Amino acid sequence: MNYIYSYFFKQQQQQQTNNKTTDKMEVEQKIDDALYSRQLYVLSHEAMQKITSTNVLVVGLTGLGIEIVKDVVLAGVKSVTLYDDEPVRITDLSSQNHKLVKRRSDACIQKVVELNNYVRINSHTGELTEEFLSGFQVVVLANQSLSTQLRINEICHRNKIKFIASETRGVFGSIFNDFGEGFQVVDTNGENPASYMVSAVSQDKTGVVTLVDEQKLQLQDGDFITFKEINGMTQLNDLPPQKIKVISPYTFSIGDTSAFGLYTNGGYVTEVKQPKTVNFQPLKTVLEKAEGLFTSDDFKFDHPYTLLAGFQAIHAFNETHKHFPRPHNKQDAEEVLKTAKEFATKLDIELKEKLIEQLSFVASGDTVGLAAVIGGITGQEVLKAASGKFHPITQLMYFDAIETLPTEELPESEFQPQNSRYDAQIAVYGATLQKRIENLKYFLVGAGAIGCEMLKNFSMMGLGCGENGMIHVTDMDTIEKSNLNRQFLFRSSDINHLKSECAARAVKVMNPSVNIKSYATRVGPETENTYNEDFYNSLDGVCNALDNIDARMYMDSQCVFYGKPLLESGTLGTKANTQVVVPKLTESYSSSRDPPEKSIPMCTLHNFPNAIEHTIQWARDLFEGIYKNSADNVNSYLTNPTFIDGLQKQNSHVRLETLQQIKSSLLGKPLNFEQCVNWARLKFEELYNNNIEQLLYNFPRDMITTTGSPFWSGPKRAPTPLKFDPSNPLHLNFVVAAANLRAYNYGIKGDSNAEQIKKWATDVIVPDFTPKKVKISTNETEQQQQQQQQQQHNDGDDDQTDKVLNEIPHPSELAGYKINPISFEKDDDTNFHIDFITAASNLRATNYNITLADRHKTKGIAGKIIPALVTTTALVSGLVCLELLKVIQNKPIDAYKNAFLNLAIPFFAFIEPVAPAKNKVREGWQFTLWDRFDVEGDITLAEFLDHFQKKYRLDISMISCQVTLMYAMFIDKKTKEDRLKTKMSVLYETLSKKPLPEKKYLVFEICCSDMDNDDEDAEVPYVRYRFRD
């Protein structure tokens, strides 16, 4: 069954027009960086060039086939040809308005065309002959008969055509790869080559390399590395890639170094990735020998062999009866089991009979969740076949989600078709569960990549389509061009429109029965009047589709507070994870988190960079400081009467620096673009010559530390000042970008005329620079000490502050004037933002002899772009839907699976969620994060204390609400007496000096002792105090 058809059927564009467009694109042979930007950070331009040259044939266009088509088309292959001569059936449609005589491939081609104008979409009729197949680099079969798979695979293997066959049978799926003999994998994992700083190399028959102890070695025995910038033992710099043997986390050995010079200092080793050759066997051989089985779940290590026999058995049944086993028909299951046993005997494998019965019961069914899982993985395998990027599945993988199946014994009638679009899902889960799905009320937070996939899945499985069902979706973002590569519900005409509204309209087309309400309101404390108690109490659950930790943690806290299940997921390129949070059953999302990212030390950024990431971050900070913060400070000075008073709260150094910025911005105001160029030329001199001269004045190249070692060694690289060269494109690019950004600050029309800018920059008279005696910190400790000294000795700074303040024009002299602050925007290629950061970073990298980064890499790091693939997103959304089916059925904890995966390797891990930690109050009384005290009605403090003493035998010694201390045993007698008579709500208003929230409750934290345990301190949960109905 195809749940996705409904979206792809309605024809809106002329195919011929689109084909003409794609013809033009082919001639240009250029990758659209704006469209594919997030994907390029995963695959690289080289891999994308191969992908955009690949012709793909997809045979079989039920749900799985269309899912594969969607992913591959969005990924940007050269062409996709659709083949399915079967007529559309009612279970393929979103409504019954379409003609059922239409061929599937004809029915969906127009909507597929809309997905990506760069991809040519064709439809084929007739036989799949060897001559026809030879026109493709990759052939994909989706839910085809085994005989068809064997026939087509034999042709493809003989003609060196990459072949993939995928199936979804109820809750069971399979993927088979045959990329031929000698397939080259150019990059097995997609990780950036590791690089390490060297601290020592021994002169020996087996040379030992020791690394600086800032970064542990992540390489393995047999990996290859190269050397660069080694001093003393310079012969290493000229060696070809060397194979290593790991000795410890900081040392490894290479070949004979005894004849080389003595190592003195410096240098780097960099991993060199080696291509891998993989040989594939035809499907017939794999089935006959039961070899090449890939395990998708280590906890189900014995399932693949059973399913190898089981899938052949259901195909044999289909060949005999012209249909797959009927839903939950025991007679058919017995026949399948008998055939499976024959295959098992032939293959000499042990059979799990219960698994075979489950396979037979659901083989005729289909679910959108499994189609998304298998389709997403298959789509990635197509990209691997096209590019050689990442390691393919070798060779046959089975997947199952039997934990989602109903555990109670249900009659066969429960799973019979009802002439409904959901019949294929009913065949798996039954009509009763289908009704529950349709009447669910879910809150989807985010309508981006994962959000689009979830909305598609929800609407196709019928969630929110019943009389009482509803999907709430919120997203405050608008659609950008880069979204179109993964967020398939959107089209070019949707750019700059709200994601939530466009997505809601799109799924309404897919399934007109869906009840959906869109919002453009951020989730957070400030919107709890919108998403209030009534809102959450109306929900059956929440599904996150977010891209930041703070929002995830907030939604997690809301789900814990209101006792709602939460479906959580995230992706990073080929990597992804899912987590299911079930009230009372599992820990919450916030219970365990990854450690925070390691920040770059300030002294490294300011003076001692040794990696391109350091110079990019420096350039990003420079952009923010010059073009935004300075403008904001000027505008605040001019418009905020209390701005100067606020500065007094800052330390004197910050105060002086801020006022000097304001003075420079106002007194140095340019009158025309030429003056902007002059400023940019002088800024070049300041940043890349003067500051470097000053640094070398403080720390000469030959400086020796107190320990006798060179100062400029290890992570410290001695810089070289730059002399401005107008003929150097990098130098000129900096001036062009810097001048145009300054022009925007001051409302002056910019210019990109490189020749004119070069002439102006050349004519600038640059003052001579003489280094001064200043203190420069060499590490974080020195920097902190220097800041403390500045705070203690601020008299000089105060004098200077007063002097600078007197030199700045009074705000009244500049009434109505403002400077335009610039907010960083990475995705506009015409605004000079990335141009400036790229040039500024690469100039600093040139100072320090660091390998430069191109604009693409700089944009990714400076913009903190999260690499993304539609294949990973589709897979994750499918896994989330499988967990949702378990939540609906109130499954035990061992049925749920948190997923951790990496499609590049490929790697799949499915782990049972962790139960919530239990905290002991007293013997026989424990609580978890899901527990709390509920106090109903607005009562006095005395009544509140008495309530806990009598009901819980707890003596409260302290009560707080957020930062307000409402009660403590140590307060004076008079105050205590007054508070005891006061209602808790009034007490909060009085002490916090805030009005009561519009919510119906307050949250109290209490400290107390156990009256039944010698008044020992007791750890207890929080109190939800409901003060209004």
From TrEMBL:
Entry similarity comment: Belongs to the ubiquitin-activating E1 family.
Domain spans labelled Ubiquitin-activating enzyme E1 C-terminal: 896-1023
Example GO BP: protein sumoylation
Biased composition (Low complexity): 783-792
Subunit structure: Monomer.
InterPro entries linked to this entry: E1_4HB, E1_FCCH, E1_FCCH_sf, ThiF/MoeB/HesA, ThiF_NAD_FAD-bd, Ub-activating_enz_E1_C, Ub-E1_IAD_1, UBA_E1_C_sf
Protein name: E1 ubiquitin-activating enzyme
Swiss-Prot/TrEMBL keywords: ATP-binding, Ligase, Nucleotide-binding, Ubl conjugation pathway
One function term, GO molecular function aspect: ATP binding
Stretches for region Disordered: 776-805
SMART domains per record: UBA_e1_C
